[in-house]
Structure formats: structure tokens, C-alpha cells
Amino acid sequence: MTLEPPTDRRKRRTHTAVLDAAQVLFLREGYRGTTIDMLAAEADVAVSSIYANFREGKADVYAALAWRIATLHADAMSAPIGSESTPRDEVAAVYDRYVAFHRENPLALRILALTDVDVSESELATTAKARIDDVLGGLIESFAAAVRLVGCDVEPHALVMVSWAAVNGAYSLFQRRIVDETTLEAMLGIARADLLSHVGDDHEA
Q1: In the beta sheet, which residues pair with residue 23?
Q2: Which pLDDT value is given to residue 79?
């Protein structure tokens, strides 16, 4: 059992349908509130088909969905930026992509941390956690390299982590309905301005 979709076309369709269903149900009902029967109904597959693709059931589905979201995250953050952009534009674009990814994937903050699954429930979750940590670590280092290239008046890695944490915190507050959308956008704008205030041609790494 692996995190990647199966090579067999029929199994791959089932795998994809179950993960699509899980993304809907985990967001709407929560992990604990979602049952295998609900997943099967939403995906329009048999319960036995879920277990044929995900041996440990719901925990393996969660792990595979987390890995799919992590790979989407990496792709979104790694897409090339226009050749006319300056290094400072690239830093701003990376920040904007991080914000956009979480806007479009409200489940990502929770599921990438494998918050709802104890790794003892699923060998696949243990594998997913290690691989997701590697992906996120690589994204942070790539962002820090972009900051370092343009020049920075503070430690680049720390600046990236502060910006990353600011975005995560803002979205977490929004998802818990502690702040409204207007306040969320204001918080994200402040975090962006703070990031860019530390980078530029007149700053040295």
C-alpha cells in the first residue's frame, strides 16, 4: 500500500474518487464525524473497494489525502514566475502563492499536520508524515533562498517562518470564526507588508 495513486486504471479511479469524497466530508463533517459508509456513498463506490485501496480504512484515506495535498502545495509553490519579475517580486509572489493555496484548500492546515490521525493507527500515516515534513521543509528552504537572494536585514529562514506562521495563524482564526473575512484580509496584508519591509536591494543578507 503506497501513498501514490495505483497504476491500474480502475483502482486509480476508485482511489481518486475516495480522496475527493474525503476532502469534501472531512471539511464538512470532520474526520471523526466521517464514517467509511459516508465515504463510500459520497465516492459512489463499495465499502469493500475502499478497504481494497486503503487497508487501514479511514486512517489510510486521511494519510493519502494529506500526501495529495502536500504534492499540490509543492506544485503551487514551485511554478515558475514570469521572466520579467525582479527577485523582490519573486518573494512577494511566493508569499501570495502560499496565501492563495490556503484560501483554496481550507482543509490543508489541519490535514498536513495529520492532526486527526494517530500514526499508530496507520503505517501509511507514518510514511506520509515523514514525506510531508520533507516537502514542507523544502518549501521553507526554497522561500528562504529567494529572500536571501534579494537581500534581507534579518535572518532569512526566521523571516520566512514568521511570515508562514502569520498566514497559518490568520487562517486558523478565520476557520474558527474568531475573525471575519475582512479582518483576515487585513491580517494577510499586514504580514505581506512586514515580509517585504525586510527585503530589497538595499538590505544585505
Answers
A1: none
A2: 73
Residues, the chain, total?
A: 205
- All residue ranges of the chain with pLDDT < 50 are 205
Q: What is the pLDDT of residue 205?
A: 43
pLDDT score of 13:
93
CA end-to-end span of the chain: 45
For residues 175 and 106, give the distance between their C-alpha atoms in angstroms, rounded to a whole number. 8
| CA gap 205, 201 in Å, rounded | 10
CA distance 5 to 15: 6
- Cα(130)–Cα(122) distance, rounded to whole angstroms? 13
Please say whether the beta carbons of 149 and 88 come within 8 A: no
Task: Give the C-alpha separation, 56 to 1, whole Å.
Answer: 10
- Residue keyed to cell 519591509: 197
HSE value, Cβ hemisphere, 13 Å, CA-based, for 84: 0
What's the pLDDT at 4? 85
Please tell me the distance from the alpha carbon of residue 95 to that of residue 165, in angstroms, as a whole number. 12
Q: Which residue has the cell 527585503?
A: 199
CA–CA gap between residue 183 and residue 169 (Å, rounded): 12
- Regarding pTM above 0.85, the answer is yes
Task: State residue 118's pLDDT score.
Answer: 83
